[in-house]
Amino acid sequence: MDNLYINVFPRKHDSVNGSDYIANYPELSKALKQCAKLRKQFLAYFTDGTLIGNCILSQPNPHAVTAYVLPDRVLMIIMNRGGAQSIAFNVDLNPWLKSESGKYEARTYNADGELVSTTELAGGVWAGDTAQLQPEELALIQFSLK
Questions:
Q1: What is the pTM of this model?
Q2: Which residues pair with 105 in a beta bridge?
Q3: DSSP letters for 100-130
Q4: At 104, phi and psi to the nearest 5?
Q5: Distance between CA 90 and CA 94 in Å, rounded?
Q6: Calculated CA dihedral for residues 9, 11, 14, 15, nearest 10 degrees
Q7: Which CATH code fits 43-145?
Q8: CA 124, CA 43: separation in Å to the nearest integer?
Q9: pLDDT (tens digit, 0 to 9) for every residue of the chain, 146 residues total?
Q10: Beta bridge partners of 106
Q11: Alpha carbon of 125 to those of 16, 58, 95, 111, 121: distances in Å?
């Protein structure tokens, strides 16, 4: 979420790091593949965007939230830190995106990078929520000018 380098070396029981295959850890393998796909899909945010962390939020949130800003759009990533649930959040886009019309669009993506919904926003302050997320599952929301 924070564009950090991941160095993964699985190990066999009672052995050294790097002694086992990632494929032998299906959950880890799936998570790494999801992250690689999302990074590729949203690469411009990670390479050209400005990381603003949870500063997009207008109220504190107990879940992991981070965001990246490009001149005409913002990507917010949310990770569920609890049990299966929908996560409510409050954002203020006004400091990050200036819309002359006062309209924005929010596109929500699931952890596989598939578009789930599109919402038109009037004004830069929005109280939204994610779909039901499993523990440690991601949701991504891309805000753009309308």
A1: 0.92
A2: 120, 144
A3: SSSEEEEEEE-TTS-EEEEEEEESSEEEEE-
A4: -135, 165
A5: 13
A6: -70
A7: 2.60.40.1180
A8: 24
A9: 988 888 999 999 999 999 999 999 999 999 999 999 999 999 999 999 999 999 999 999 999 999 999 999 999 999 999 999 999 999 999 999 999 999 999 999 999 999 999 999 999 999 999 999 999 999 999 999 98
A10: 119, 143
A11: 50, 8, 10, 24, 8
Closest CA to 143 of 92, 100, 101: 92
Please give the Cα distance from 146 to 144 (Å, whole number). 6
Q: Which two tokens stand for residue 45?
A: 């945010």
Q: Token pair of 42, please?
A: 């949203």
Distance of alpha carbon 64 from its chain centroid, rounded? 9
Domain parsing of the chain, residue ranges:
43-145
How deeply is 69 buried, as exposed, middle or buried, from its count of CB atoms within 10 A (0-12, 13-18, 19+)? buried
Query: 16 Cβ partners below 8 Å, 6+ apart?
Result: none
144 CA to centre of own chain: 15
The number of angstroms, rounded, from the C-alpha of 47 to the middle of its chain's C-alpha atoms is 15
Q: How far is 126 from 106, CA to CA, in rounded Å?
A: 10
Amino acid letter at 79? M
Query: Whole-angstrom Cα distance, residue 121 to residue 106?
Result: 7
